[in-house]
Input
Amino acid sequence: MKYGYARVSTIQQDLEAQLQALKNEGCEVIYSEKFTGTKADRPKFKEVLAKLEAGDTLTVTKLDRFARSTVDAINTVKALFERGVKVHVLNMGLVEDTPTGRLILTIMSGFAEFERDMIVERTQEGKALARQREDFREGRPKKFKKSQIEHALKLLETNSYNQVENMTGISKSTLIRAKKRQEQLNH
Output
């Protein structure tokens, strides 16, 4: 049986490209989750590992979808090899239980970990630079002032969401959330 595993690190990221690649590869069952790879507790990954039997193949799009570090990748693949499970990493090929296959796995795992570490480092440097600015604010900027939201909510008393959105430029979803917050505060 050919199993696929797809993972993205945040809720905002899209799994679709990975899922499509796994389907195109002929995976019969695909497990997916939105969970950071730095955490050991990835429920769907544990689930697919438990299902795998000798002769099965586990397919992932890239090695970093599968393991948290080089050591983790090597240990996981070794454990799968011991169970007679093949590992197919789409951007590397079939990882074989041979000296050459294990060497390639080790090198590619090292590069994947290095790449992830560099991204984290650059992100931290960017945040540190941004914090030095006088106008720095953590998180997403507020698009509308409180007074603008209050005005839009008043308009909702006599107009539809679409009408208020057209008048103010404040999206329907923002208006719905603001109205819910307002109702919660009034109760």
User: Anything to note?
Assistant: The CA atoms of residues 6 and 19 lie 6 Å apart. Helices lie at 16-24, 43-51, 70-82, 99-131, 146-155, 161-168, 172-186.
